[in-house]
């Protein structure tokens, strides 16, 4: 069970598909004009991701290597069509707002990347959890970007007015240019947070500090991490031990 | 004559006002991925132009001659992505055999195009806007030119950015995204033009 919790945390924080891996940029930029659109897009992609991961994982022994990408695309587009028809029937306003970006989930790189990198090599349950975690990571990132854009650009959040009346909404954040600017600033903030966490971990080699260390090694700046570990291995070792076991468990889990 | 002017205006609008990258966000992945050098950007742009023009024609024909008469229009996403994948494969084989120089120039970018949302997006847009055959091909071609132009402009910007001394947290993707935002701001000036 612990393994799955870790997998979900990985998808939302350490390996966030949008903010860390920069996958699926088209819907990220296009559908974050409002929080409701972002939630709709995120959940639609999550549904497709879970279904396609499960299906591809079930069929992983039958799909020939040579035509696997084409097979994955057919499976994914089948589920996307299903989601599209369901949304058209039951969530018509959202369907109208998202427009062409719903069929374009087919070519969202996150889904194909998870099919190729995870679902084609792992059993059904871990694949489903992987789809859920990556989908949630995508949704969280979209909601974060959309919150910034909607609050600054329209003064509302989920359609409710949140800014004081003297605040004049800056339309630029709703326009395409605002999408690039907001995402750039958020990625910069994430980078800053990561380097703060790394500096903190270096200054306070406490269990909490160590907790941050493995995340850093996975994601971005390993250079800053390697030095303290090499300098004082004796003091670090007892605290890191449980951590490495856990990561080994998850590594075994994903290698199954 | 009227129709010709109409098509030309529509093409101009797809290049500038409805630019795939800066207004519609189709094809952002290759845009961010291969725009670090002008030469690779040009290769990608050429490959995309080639595929979008052909796929606009092919998807239009399949939609209007097969899907529509048999009431299968709800299958258009699946049908189009298969057509595009097959077309990309076909173009790759054809070029390898008959135009090796172009094949070498487009190189690894061709197979990547299958999952480029610009291609599927333009095919779906043609259907949504109910363009006829000539319009579909012309608008597809123009949109691809707009994509190529955007990626080339941006490759030039990125070549300069490599020498910029940005704060550490802004290095890499954030700086790239923010400069793209500035170019998008310039492009949004075109949206005042009414065709």
Count of domain modules of chain A? 1
Strand content of chain A: under 5%
Radius of gyration of chain A in whole Å, from Cα? 20 Å
Report the radius of gyration of chain B as a whole number of Å: 18 Å
* Distance separating the two termini of chain B: 17 Å
Give structural notes:
The complex is a heterodimer of chains A (256) and B (195). Helices cover 74% and strands 2% of the residues of chain A. Chain A has helices at residues 2-14, 25-30, 35-58, 68-90, 92-98, 109-119, 124-154, 176-203, 207-219, 222-231, 233-255; strands at residues 156-157, 160-161. In chain A, strand 1 (156-157) and strand 2 form a beta hairpin. Chain A starts with a helix and ends with a helix. With 195 residues, chain B is mostly helical. The model of chain B has no long low-confidence stretch (mean pLDDT 88). At the A-B interface, helix 2, helix 4 and helix 8 of A face helix 2, helix 3, helix 5, helix 8 and helix 10 of B.
Quick take:
The complex is a heterodimer of chains A (256) and B (195). Helices cover 74% and strands 2% of the residues of chain A.
Secondary-structure topology with pairs:
The complex is a heterodimer of chains A (256) and B (195).
Chain A: H1 2-14, H2 25-30, H3 35-58, H4 68-90, H5 92-98, H6 109-119, H7 124-154, E1 156-157, E2 160-161, H8 176-203, H9 207-219, H10 222-231, H11 233-255
Antiparallel strand pairs in A: 1-2
Helix pairs in contact in A: 1-7, 3-4, 3-6, 3-7, 4-5, 4-6, 6-7, 8-9, 9-11
Chain B: H1 2-15, H2 20-24, H3 28-33, H4 38-67, H5 76-98, H6 100-106, H7 109-112, H8 117-128, H9 133-161, H10 173-188
Helix pairs in contact in B: 1-9, 4-5, 4-8, 4-9, 5-6, 5-8, 8-9, 9-10
